[in-house]
Design goal:
Layout (H helix, E strand, L loop, with lengths): L2 H6 L7 H10 E6 L5 E5 L6 E4 L11 H7 L7 H4 L47
Length: 127
């Protein structure tokens, strides 16, 4: 990443200011499978943040690390959460605005016929 891009953009990873703050006040506590790095403040461990690998998209944070960031769990996810079960899927990023976004049949993004209404809707009218 170029120096000017790092100084003035926040959407492509950490900006220069965030990197400076992190190097002075942050303690790296772990990384996830996507390469995101997680930090906590050296003097105030309740302050926690993430430096994303790639685009800054909160939907790219796995559920365990999200719980740690919000203070729901105090220990790191690898230490405090049960092992992952076989039926659990990998977390997926938010696909809105991409070619992989869900588009039902009959919408502007996908040709076809819209599904018929089921008839269980009854509009409310005041008396």
């Amino acid at each position: 990443m170029g120096m000017l891009q790092q100084m003035f953009t926040w959407w492509n990873g950490a900006s220069f200011g965030t990197g400076l703050f992190t190097s002075r006040h942050g303690e790296k506590v772990g990384t996830d499978a996507l390469g995101n790095a997680y930090y906590r403040h050296k003097k105030d461990p309740a302050r926690r943040w993430v430096i994303y690998e790639g685009s800054n998209d909160a939907s790219r944070t796995p559920p365990g690390w999200n719980a740690w960031l919000r203070g729901t769990i105090d220990d790191l996810p690898d230490e405090s959460l049960p092992p992952r079960r076989s039926f659990e899927r990998d977390a997926t990023p938010n696909l809105t605005g991409t070619a992989e976004a869900y588009r039902p049949g009959g919408s502007l993004g996908r040709p076809g016929q819209r599904a018929a209404a089921t008839g269980d809707y009854e509009a409310w009218t005041p008396e």
